[in-house]
């Protein structure tokens, strides 16, 4: 009699102090917090649908959607106010919460970076992130979502061995003024990946005739089946 071993599911854990449970904003699957503008967008804009325009919107673009729905969204734990001054050279932060929410880095640590004159700051995160052995996490600004008055810096952490809190450096990107970052605002998108899958070598060469034929067939089938692009009869002549 044959028996098959069932593989344990790979699980990412977000763990907080017991006293923070139910108080700080929780992580959420990225697919559950799609931006309102995207939810309202129709797959086909009937106002543009015609013989020469398929009216398709980005809602029918699977790469765009897959990027937004992959992984988890880690939000800010509590509401923070960012006061940007002096053409972005100064950023003050305040909050009504019993934990530190924002601290500063020395500007000399990133001298010459493209975000100057905005100084480097850091959001404090109170979720510990744990992944199975061999798995790391990519942290990056939430993909294809509305801009915030800040942008976190992307990074990778080996979350199978590092279980301390991971804080997120950021630059204020808003114009001078007071900007309120509400509790639950997405800070970063968390995408777990297995390091062994990422450790691949690159092959850089010209495609073969068979590869070119396959690529062209896929492209033409996409055009015929999904209507990504249509030329008008007049333009095709």
Question: How would you describe the overall organization of this protein?
Answer:
This protein has helices spanning 36-40, 62-69, 195-198, 209-226, 233-236, and strands at residues 13-15, 28-29, 72-75, 80-85, 90-94, 102-104, 120-123, 128-130, 135-140, 150-152, 155-157, 168-172, 177-181, 186-194. With 237 residues, it is of the alpha+beta class. The chain has a 5-stranded antiparallel β-sheet. The chain has a 4-stranded antiparallel β-sheet with strand order 6-7-12-10, with no helix packed on it. A hairpin with a 4-residue loop joins β4 (80-85) and β5 (90-94). Residues 1-6 and 228-237 have low confidence and may be disordered.
Task: Please summarize what this structure is.
With 237 residues, the chain is α+β, with helices and mostly antiparallel strands. The chain has helices at residues 36-40, 62-69, 195-198, 209-226, 233-236; strands at residues 13-15, 28-29, 72-75, 80-85, 90-94, 102-104, 120-123, 128-130, 135-140, 150-152, 155-157, 168-172, 177-181, 186-194.
Helix content: 10-25%
SS strand fraction: 25-35%
Poorly predicted runs = 1-6, 228-237
Q: Average pLDDT value?
A: 89
User: What structural category do the secondary elements indicate?
Assistant: alpha+beta
The run of helices and strands is: EEHHEEEEEEEEEEEEHHH
List the helices and strands and how they pair.
Blueprint: E1 13-15, E2 28-29, H1 36-40, H2 62-69, E3 72-75, E4 80-85, E5 90-94, E6 102-104, E7 120-123, E8 128-130, E9 135-140, E10 150-152, E11 155-157, E12 168-172, E13 177-181, E14 186-194, H3 195-198, H4 209-226, H5 233-236
Antiparallel strand pairs: 1-8, 2-3, 3-14, 4-5, 4-13, 6-7, 7-12, 9-11, 9-14, 10-12
């Amino acid at each position: 009699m044959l028996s098959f071993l069932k593989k344990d599911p790979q699980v990412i854990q977000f763990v907080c102090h017991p006293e923070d449970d139910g108080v700080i904003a929780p992580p959420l699957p990225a697919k559950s917090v799609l931006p309102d503008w995207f939810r309202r967008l129709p797959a086909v804009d009937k106002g543009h649908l015609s013989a020469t325009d398929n009216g398709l919107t980005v809602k029918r673009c699977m790469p765009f959607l897959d990027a937004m729905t992959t992984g988890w969204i880690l939000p800010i734990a509590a509401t923070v106010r960012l006061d940007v001054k002096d053409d972005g050279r100064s950023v003050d932060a305040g909050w009504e919460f019993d934990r530190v929410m924002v601290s500063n880095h020395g500007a000399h640590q990133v001298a010459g970076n493209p975000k100057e004159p905005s100084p480097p700051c850091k959001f404090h995160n109170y979720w510990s992130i744990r992944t199975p052995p061999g798995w790391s996490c990519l942290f990056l600004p939430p993909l294809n979502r509305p801009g915030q008055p800040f942008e976190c810096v992307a990074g990778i952490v080996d979350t199978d061995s590092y279980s301390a809190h991971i804080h997120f450096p950021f630059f204020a990107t808003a114009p001078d003024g007071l900007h309120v970052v509400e509790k639950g605002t997405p800070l970063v998108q968390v995408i777990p990946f297995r390091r062994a899958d990422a450790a691949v070598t690159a092959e850089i060469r010209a495609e073969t005739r068979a590869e070119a034929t396959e690529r062209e067939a896929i492209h033409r089938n996409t055009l015929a089946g999904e209507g990504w692009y249509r030329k008008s009869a007049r333009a095709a002549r």
